[in-house]
Amino acid sequence: MTSQPYRDTSLSVEARIDDLLDRMTIDEKTDQLIQIPLGADENPNNIGEGTFRPTVGSMLASRRGAAAHNAYQRIAVEDTRLGIPILFGQDVIHGCYTIFPHSIAQACSFDPELATRAARIAAREARAMGYHWTFSPMIDVARDPRWGRVVEGYGEDPYLNGVFAAAVVRGYQGDDLASRDSVAACLKHFVGYGASEGGRDYSYTDVSRRALWETYLPPYRAGVAAGAATIMSSFNDITGVPAVANHYTLTEVLRNRWGFDGFVVSDWAAVRQLAAQGLSADPRVQTKRCLEAGNEMDMTDEVYACIPDLVRTGALDESVVDEAVRRVLRIKMRMGLFENPYFDEKPADEVFLLPEYKSVAQDFAAESCVLLKNRDSALPILNSGVDSGTAGRESSSGPRVAVIGPAADDADALLGSWRCLGRAEDAMSICAGLEKRLGDAVRHARGCDYDSDDRTGFDDAVRVTENSDVAVLCLGEPSDWTGENASRASIELPGVQAELVRSVAEAARVRDVPVVLVLVGGRPLGLKQVEPQVDAIVQAWQPGTMGGAAIAAILLGNRNPSGKLAISFPRTTGNIPTYYCEHSRARPSMGLYRDVESDALFELGHGLSYTTFAYGEISLSAVEISPSDRITAVVEVRNSGACAGTETVLWYVRDPEASITQPVRRLVAFERLELSAGESARVTLDIDPAKHLSYPDFDGNQVLEPGVFIIEASRRTEKQVRLRA
Ligand code: GLC
Q1: How far does residue 268's CA lie from ligand 1's centre (Å)?
Q2: Which residue, 415, 406, 386, 486, is CA-closest to 446?
Q3: Which of 61, 204, 356, 486 would suit a FRET pair with 236, their CA atoms being 20 to 30 Å apart?
Q4: Nearest CA to ligand 1 atom 3
Q5: What does pTM read for this prediction?
Q6: What are the tens digits of pLDDT across the range 414-453?
Q7: Residue ranges of the alpha helices (H) in 249-368?
Q8: What is the number of other CB atoms lying within 10 angstroms of the CB of residue 252?
């Protein structure tokens, strides 16, 4: 046995931690709870750059690379009294060098397995860059597209956020957290951040206990169950108690109800921000409140530096500090950092942007696009690549394609926010993607900027439209219009983009030229004005490094779009919030807006294909059950169109009568089906009443009540089941 049991891997992690804790001074314990910025974060909202200290628990935001981090680590491991390794963290949100579709787009793929593969690639690139820990997945349910961070989560539904939370955690952490390909995941931002008032970032959130348990906590429960190593507490004030100091969420829920045994890190300077939020400006009070609530690590503001003083004066019990340090050391030991503290140092071309990584990125980008509208089969532009018979326009010499708009040749817009080390020069724009396939049949005109009142480019846009067989408008928002601190009071198409649509549509109509709208950006936009003027709409989101190639493949028919919306599209800004699982109204057909339709323009689950799918009736193995019974629901789906396609069957439950009112429907499961033309498949849902028919009460206890429930498949067919007492 070594003279230092905490280094002895034949002992249990807890025994090793006991030994190490016994050796640590209060100053060394304090340093383990402090995270220092080692570089100016890509995020301009995070102000401050720290100086390296070899005894801190973690460093973040450095882009110096594996060799530089190893040099820092050598000092920590070899030149300090206890040699505790440092955790290097970074925001690897949707890729490190190879950038995948942003999270909201990934959710529209309804392909969690692909999200796992992408996260695994991101983990490999992150480790190669000298990171052990990523501050991802962000799983904040969000229903207000004015909030810029809507792009970072997996949409408006708690269940879908939870499925992707678990999938991404599995990708990052793999089967072995100590693997040199794994990084520690970090579920964020715990909790209720997506309820930011008015969509304004960092603001107050009025989140009832019911909303916590019904909407905002479920994704975290799934992420914790998947083994997430860490969690980040959020900036928002949860109905009077800021998340970073919230004992109910951090201890009663996370620790006591869910048994979470990793650690919680604050968000950037969130401890100090308690002053701005009106809790306390006293660092001692801030520290005591946050630590005693269950926030273990302090990101960047070093307020926790007052821990030794608090302990010495008896204002803070050292056992609270010990529990926090224990959790940090537990993750470091589970990651094997004491045995393997250093990163592999390999040439960039051996570890970043590998062909197989880019292939996965292009697949994911294609699966994340959602075909919202396709009047008269305006798409695909070509038949090439898709089974014969696909409807579409084709001329002898191939179609001349006008590609218009600010997003047409903007590769940067496809990467989105939180791109880590992703670079626009490694990405292909939509125009480049089309030119690669169509050559000089592509006519490009910018038409207008994202957000100016300059209409001087309209004539050029009209001219290329008049000389083409199809007009593709590439519109939306630039990368930095979503992400952190990117709230907008309006979700309408910015600048004069809507006017450009009108001008191009008028010119196109004269010559019966179909108009296709491709939307780039990170939030649902208000499309009430422009939707009637175009023949097809592809919601491309921010599809990542390979987005241009993927969008071209869809427009030209090499890929049949299969995405479905993970977040509803309000018709206008004034319609916010609009989401699929609203609660029933006292007078369902009254009290609606007098000036605009009140329903979503496109609702969660909407997404078209170049083929069609027919649904049979749902058959249930029983129509009356007891709580202990399990039944199966089966629905047959047939590809009733002319080309192969992928359909995601969405299973919903409606609970029309309960002691606590319920959403009009809840997504409870989904399954992707790849079907060739004419092929059918039966999709089965195993219904467990306790899991599928129960709901959380005001304190998160699952309640199962007798009564009638309606099982729906993709809003296409439904069946009733009665649950006996
Ligand atoms: C930020 C973000 C958080 C991010 C952290 C570190 O302010 O809110 O999502 O992980 O700081 O960059």
Answers
A1: 6
A2: 406
A3: 61
A4: 267
A5: 0.97
A6: 999 999 999 999 999 999 999 999 999 999 999 999 999 9
A7: 283-293, 307-312, 318-334, 348-351, 355-368
A8: 16
